[in-house]
């Protein structure tokens, strides 16, 4: 790199040639990197906040739009489009430059937010969330790519850590904001929940202004053909599998609809792999990248850690809300130890990586800490004190703070600069898919086991005359109406009845739920252990270049 610190964009040639390597970017000072980073963090905060805000208020939204049974599509639609376009953004940014493509992602996200704010049905909202996903899919991966563009390999972890910290912060802020808006019947003449989407508009406007002012990253055009066939076959392969991951629990994992989805997904993925091999360098996910050991290990670790991370982030709030009776907003506040540990460790690890150039020790420690957190959660009881839960949260936050940035650094460490956009997008693609698998699998395990375990505890409790008498009282009997099935089963579609039960009657339900959650967290620990062994025994202890 040259010693110049200019940040102006060079004039693009009218006939770009395909270089073996892009020209070196001008080295930016720490202050200039932080200025660029401020714009990136605003854009990424939009996408990260939106997901957590919507999840905390989804039940209220579905009730208002009379679509309780279809609410999962609101999440699935965003996830499907966001996942599919992620690798496409990487390729487009390699061709046209980071800034215009990043601005396009924000504009699409904002337009989708505006549409969502005025949706009149649950299916319309799902369609508009798909538009949001078209923009949201590029915000995280492009931010990581731009940081890789303007920093040396040794410095990347330090700055990417800030972005990881933003994601952690949104996981706490999101439920709070969602709870505030969803708790308001109306605000300025509109339903309170609609502001969950409309608040994105001023935030996006601010992000656009900041990016236009500060994001001037030199760009060497790279000639790529757009892999439309790859995008199509990837959609055919991924969309059915994401849908069945979200809907399989209600459909039945072996139902005819699920089997059709499996078959279509497999055909699509096989077609995608065959086509990508033929497309070579023009491929949406270039096969040559998987010949790079560091990139291959990074994608595997992102997928496995994504399973544990998103699975835990989905099920831990359920423990706080079910076993501890917290509202979504209070549950968000209770996860502050996760955010605090995440931010602190992210910043410390980033600085250590910048100073020493070593990242394996932090990667191994981070994945190990995340696995320990799953083991702590696997020992929870319905009456566990919050300080004990907080111990697990600290381990989880510290683990994610150390692991996520170092895995990204690992994946990028040996990738040529001209493929950085496609590589970073690919890494985020695998993390997103790992998260989908983790959330779906963990919830499936939870609800598959909870019914039988609650039934067992109810059968034991019913032998006690005092329990039968308490359960027969009018208020408790009314709350249990529709919950206890004639065949002895339990209807777990809605847990709101627990709030209206006497604690003595609710106890078997809480014990059954927590018993099932312990199995879920043990599963997370097993996946975390696999990731730990890969990190400890397969990742090389290399030193990052300072250039």
Automatic annotation (TrEMBL):
This is MFS transporter. Residues 1-11 have a biased composition (Low complexity). Pfam families: MFS_1. The keyword Membrane applies. Gene3D superfamilies: MFS general substrate transporter like domains, Multidrug resistance protein D. CDD domains: MFS_Azr1_MDR_like. It is found in: Cell membrane. InterPro entries: EmrB-like, MFS, MFS_dom, MFS_trans_sf. One of its GO terms (cellular component) is plasma membrane. GO terms for molecular function: transmembrane transporter activity. NCBIfam families: efflux_EmrB. Residues 36-543 form the Major facilitator superfamily (MFS) profile domain. Keywords: Cell membrane, Membrane, Transmembrane, Transmembrane helix, Transport. Residues 1-26 are annotated as: Disordered. The chain crosses the membrane at residues 33-58, 70-89, 101-120, 126-150, 162-183, 195-214, 226-245, 257-275, 295-319, 331-349, 361-380, 386-411, 519-539. The keyword Cell membrane applies. It is a multi-pass membrane protein. Belongs to the major facilitator superfamily. TCR/Tet family. PANTHER family: COMD, MAJOR FACILITATOR SUPERFAMILY.
């Amino acid at each position: 790199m040259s010693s110049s610190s200019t940040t102006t964009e060079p004039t693009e040639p009218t006939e770009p040639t395909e270089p073996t390597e892009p020209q070196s970017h001008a080295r930016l000072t720490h202050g200039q990197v932080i200025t660029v980073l401020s714009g990136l963090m605003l854009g990424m905060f939009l996408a990260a906040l939106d997901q957590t805000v919507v999840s905390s208020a989804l039940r209220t939204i579905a009730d208002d739009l009379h679509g309780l049974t279809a609410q999962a599509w609101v999440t699935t639609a965003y996830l499907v489009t966001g996942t599919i376009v992620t690798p496409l953004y990487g390729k487009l940014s390699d061709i046209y430059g980071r800034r215009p493509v990043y601005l396009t992602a924000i504009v699409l996200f904002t337009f989708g937010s505006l549409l969502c704010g005025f949706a009149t049905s649950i299916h319309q909202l799902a369609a508009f969330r798909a538009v949001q996903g078209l923009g949201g899919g590029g915000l995280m991966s492009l931010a990581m790519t731009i940081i890789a563009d303007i920093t040396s390999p040794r410095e990347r972890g330090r700055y990417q850590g800030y972005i990881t910290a933003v994601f952690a912060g949104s996981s706490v802020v999101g439920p709070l904001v969602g709870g505030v808006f969803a708790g308001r019947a109306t605000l300025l003449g509109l339903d309170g929940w609609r502001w969950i989407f409309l608040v994105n508009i001023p935030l996006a406007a601010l992000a656009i202004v900041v990016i236009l002012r500060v994001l001037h990253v030199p760009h060497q055009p790279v000639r790529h053909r757009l892999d439309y066939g790859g995008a199509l076959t990837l959609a055919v392969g991924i969309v059915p599998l994401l849908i069945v991951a979200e809907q399989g629990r209600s459909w039945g994992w072996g139902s005819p609809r699920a089997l059709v989805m499996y078959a279509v997904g497999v055909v699509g993925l096989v077609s995608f792999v065959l086509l990508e091999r033929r497309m070579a360098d023009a491929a949406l996910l270039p096969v040559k990248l998987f010949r790079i050991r560091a990139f291959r290990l990074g994608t595997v670790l992102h997928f496995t850690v994504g399973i544990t991370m998103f699975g835990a982030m989905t099920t831990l709030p359920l423990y706080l809300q079910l076993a501890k009776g917290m509202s979504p907003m209070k549950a968000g506040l209770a996860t502050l130890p996760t955010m605090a540990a995440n931010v602190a460790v992210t910043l410390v690890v980033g600085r250590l990586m910048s100073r020493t150039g070593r990242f394996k020790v932090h990667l191994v420690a981070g994945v190990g800490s995340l696995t320990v957190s799953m083991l702590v959660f696997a020992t929870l009881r319905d009456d566990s004190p919050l300080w004990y839960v907080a111990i697990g949260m600290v381990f989880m936050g510290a683990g994610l703070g150390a692991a996520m940035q170092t895995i990204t650094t690992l994946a990028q460490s040996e990738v040529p600069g001209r493929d950085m956009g496609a590589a970073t997008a690919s890494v985020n693609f695998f993390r997103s898919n790992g998260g989908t698998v983790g959330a779906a699998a963990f919830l499936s395990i939870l609800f598959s086991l909870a019914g039988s375990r609650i039934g067992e505890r109810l059968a034991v409790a019913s032998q006690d005359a005092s329990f039968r008498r308490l359960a027969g009282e009018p208020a408790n009997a009314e709350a249990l109406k529709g919950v206890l099935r004639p065949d002895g089963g339990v209807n777990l579609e809605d847990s709101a009845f627990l709030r209206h039960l006497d604690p003595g009657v609710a106890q078997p339900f809480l014990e059954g739920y927590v018993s099932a959650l312990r199995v879920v967290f043990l599963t997370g620990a097993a996946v975390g252990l696999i990731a730990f062994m890969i990190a400890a025994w397969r990742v090389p202890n290399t030193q990052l270049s300072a250039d």
